[in-house]
Amino acid sequence: MRIDMITLFPEMFAGPFGDSIIKRAVEKGILDIHFTNFRDFAFDKHRQVDDSPFGGGSGMVLKPEPLFRAVRHVKESTAEYGSRRVLLMDPGGVPFRQDKAKELAKYEQLIFICGHYEGFDARITENLADEAISIGDYVLTGGELPAMVITDAVSRMLPGVLGSEESAPTDSFYDGLLEFPQYTRPREYEGMQVPEILFSGDHGKIRQWRRQQSLRITKKNRPDLLERAELTAEDRKFLCSPDAFEGFACGKT
């Protein structure tokens, strides 16, 4: 997959993309990450990328010309990529979730538009980006951090990025639930014991225990996720049992 960042601050990506999983994915040739400073596509004397909003108001709004030119340049120079998606980092966009990460991982190229200042000229949102995405109900200084977050989440879905092909499917949110608790050595620490079921050798019972733990944790911390998770009849029965805390709408089918 090729990743293109359209940004005023390409140096912000050096740390997060220079270590750990992203770095290894680039070294393996799984990810190919490029940066385009859209100030280079502002052709006026002052290389201005923003201006005051029509109708008045505080702050500065990003102008359409530099961003349209930058994105078109990237598209024209990477015409060999058959499937691509232009993503606008915007707190007013659709919420980013795990299912969106899996969807975006199917593209050959992702182009991220990272803004700054008060916001974008609406023509960028409506006519340049394929979709606007938000990583949460809060406002950040710019779109670089959301672009890093989404790149990290999407890259985990690509074959060969993680050490094991079984790692991603056990992550929180992959199947709509939070992840079950994990344990490692020592078996006992300061009186705290690892659950005995994990030493049983019965993989069927271990899978059932892990599923139930995911359901318990999701019900406790993120009950909203249960509304759209794919639950079996056995899942619902467990959620309505005394072992799963209170709060699940047991009358639903």
Describe the 3D structure.
α4 crosses α6 (144-155). Helix content is 32%, strand content 17%. The longest helix is centred in the C-terminal third of the chain and has 19 residues, at 203-221. It folds into two domains: 2-155, 3-Layer(aba) Sandwich (Alpha/beta knot); 172-253, Orthogonal Bundle (Trp Operon Repressor, Chain A). The protein is α/β, with parallel strands linked by helices. It is elongated, with a radius of gyration of 23 Å. The protein has nine helices and ten strands. The strands form three sheets. The chain has a five-stranded parallel beta sheet. 25% of the residues are buried.
Largest sheet: 5 strands, parallel
Find the structural class using helix and strand composition. alpha/beta
Q: What percent of residues are in strands?
A: 15-25%
Q: What is the string of SSEs from the N terminus onward?
A: EHHEEEHEHEEHEHEEHHH
Rg over C-alpha atoms, rounded to the nearest angstrom? 23 Å
Number of DSSP helices?
9
Please report the distance between the alpha carbons of the first and last residues: 40 Å
CATH class bucket of the largest domain? Alpha Beta
- Can you tell me the overall shape? elongated
Share of residues in helices: 25-40%
* CATH third-level topology of the largest domain: Alpha/beta knot
Number of domains: 2
CATH level 4 superfamily of the largest domain: SPOUT methyltransferase, trefoil knot domain
Please give the CATH architecture of the largest domain: 3-Layer(aba) Sandwich
User: What's the arrangement of strands in the largest beta sheet?
Assistant: 2-1-6-5-8
Uncertain ranges: none
Number of strands: 10
Mean pLDDT: 92
